[in-house]
Design brief:
It contains seven helices and 13 strands. It is an alpha+beta fold. The protein has one domain (4-227). It has a three-stranded antiparallel beta sheet, covered by helices on one side.
Length: 237
């Protein structure tokens, strides 16, 4: 279970962060959250689908990494086999937290002390001897800021997709070369027929909000499904 604390140079000066990628570092996941501002990079490597948060029921965009729980087909012995690694993976074990309930303080950086990347004797340091942030930490904070802005933009994106009924549920029925079959449910994609019926004023509003390009990137990203299927076909099971 996660144990987040607001990052403090006094409390966390001795901590280090293990880098690299692997199942032992928490990267064996079937999908990872993404957001419209990241779709350009995501669609070059992964299918972009949508699913619901089991706790809130709210939709979010996700980069598909595998076909079952704890399966990431991009993990290899030497790391992550893709030209782009999703920002939500890169940010681990950090998270943006609210500055405080009921006030206007800006978001703060928090750290999951139970994450497998946390160490006291190996990995990248967070603070220098004088207490200043290391270059590694500065890079993570910049990434978190980018993520925070991107996820906020993504909330409006999802609301707009629902407003125009542009999400439709799909079931992935896949037959693999070894004779096994897999049916993946609980996923949604862009409703293309509905999309192509939208009128000019609606398309213009989507474009002005910065949503139109991500919609078409999500559609185009489904061609990456072939790559993930081939990755599964190469597994020895």
């Amino acid at each position: 279970m996660s144990q987040y604390e607001v990052l403090s140079k006094d409390k966390h000066r001795q901590l280090r962060i293990k880098t690299g990628y692997g199942a032992a570092l928490g990267d064996a996941v079937m999908y990872v959250m993404t957001y419209p501002m990241e779709f350009r990079d995501i669609q070059s490597c992964y299918p972009i689908l949508f699913t619901k948060d089991p706790d809130t029921g709210g939709f979010f965009a996700a980069a598909l990494l595998g076909f079952e729980a704890d399966q990431n087909l991009f993990l290899q012995d030497d790391g992550w086999d893709a030209s782009y690694i999703p920002a939500m993976v890169q940010r681990q074990p950090f998270l943006i937290a609210n500055g405080g309930e009921g006030d206007d303080r800006p978001p703060v950086v928090s750290l999951d002390l139970n994450h497998p990347r946390i160490s006291e004797d190996e990995g990248e340091a967070l603070f220098k001897d004088d207490g200043g942030a290391t270059e590694f930490l500065d890079q993570k904070v910049a990434l978190l800021d980018k993520l925070h802005r991107g996820l906020q933009h993504g909330n409006g994106f999802i609301d707009t997709l629902l407003q125009h009924e542009l999400l439709e549920q799909i079931t992935l029925d896949i037959a693999f070369n070894d004779g096994s079959k897999k049916s993946v449910q609980g996923l949604y994609c862009i409703a293309e027929e509905r999309l192509y019926q939208l009128k000019g004023d609606v398309l213009e509003s989507l474009n002005e909000a910065g949503y139109l390009q991500p919609v078409f990137m999500a559609v185009a990203s489904l061609s990456r499904m072939r790559d993930i299927i081939e990755r599964r076909n190469r597994l020895r099971v």
